[in-house]
UniProtKB/TrEMBL annotation:
Oxidoreductase in keyword set: yes
Classification via InterPro entries: Nitroreductase, Nitroreductase-like
Highest rank taxon of the organism: Bacteria
Pfam families noted in UniProt: Nitroreductase
Protein name: Nitroreductase family protein
Keywords recorded for this protein, A-Z: Oxidoreductase
Gene3D superfamilies named among the record's database cross-references: NADH Oxidase
Annotated ranges, domain Nitroreductase: 10-218
PANTHER family for the chain: NAD(P)H NITROREDUCTASE YDGI-RELATED, NADH DEHYDROGENASE_NAD(P)H NITROREDUCTASE XCC3605-RELATED
Entry's family note: Belongs to the nitroreductase family.
Amino acid sequence: MLSTKFEEIIQKRRSNRRYDPTVKVDDAVIERSLQRSILSPNSSNMQLWEFYWIKSEEEKKAFHQLCLGQSAAKDTAHMVVFVTRQDLWKQRAAWNLKLVQDSIEGEPSKMQKRGLEYYGKLIPLLYRNDIFGISTFIRWNICFWMGLKKPMMRFGGKADQRVMVHKSCALAAQTFMLSIAAEGFESCPMEGFDAQRVKKHLNLPAGAEINMVISVGKGTEEGVWGPRFRVPYEEVVHVR
């Protein structure tokens, strides 16, 4: 059953910080895993992410230093840098809007009308920013006054936008790591890196942000730092 297989994958996936340099990971494994990552759930299907596949020896050596020389970035077969692209919201909104428009034959359906409204008006309201903060002020007021009468998504400033795109990107990163585990290899998500230098190295624009860097390889026993401990189920799960 799928449930049994998924349980095996979840139990297998561990952050592994030391890889066997003699074992290669085929490019096809990374490509399949990235294809699966693209299928991850994300906010409004905006897909405000990019994935930078690091596989040349020269680039891997550079990223070992950019990841502060940590063991998880050494002897890795591949690395993938997960990047948020909030700055691409106009292009992605237009892409979604065109998908809706192209699907219309004759009179648009109720769902199609909602799609046109959503990507044509609501998404710009959510993502637009300006140097004077007018867009943020408008969003804050809409949320505050409408929220007095009914439940409302509280969405105001740039911090809310950043959280939203990073959540989506992290979901893609998790899909990638589960896929790597399903392929029989190991991975390690890293937050220990110089974000400014990584951006510069990848020649990313100011609006891009590094979500995380994930290394991939054939893990070793010493690469798993002890048993996996988790806070008890009863302490973190609250049934209402």
